Amino acid sequence: MPGKGKRGKGRGKSGGKKQKKPEVDILSPAAMLNLYYIAHNVADCLQLRGFRWPGAPKSKKGKNKT
Length: 66
What we know:
The protein is mostly helical.
């Protein structure tokens, strides 16, 4: 169709200030309820919160289902 050329992919906000992530309380009731549903044991709970033990295998962010 005439008049329709290739469109470039739109870029997000370029430049400008980066927004600072708010501090999150990992001991809040909402966070504890979420952790209750996703963690299977204490070691899993600590790993999900970022406290890994020495020698623990590094896990990938997304789990591939193949």
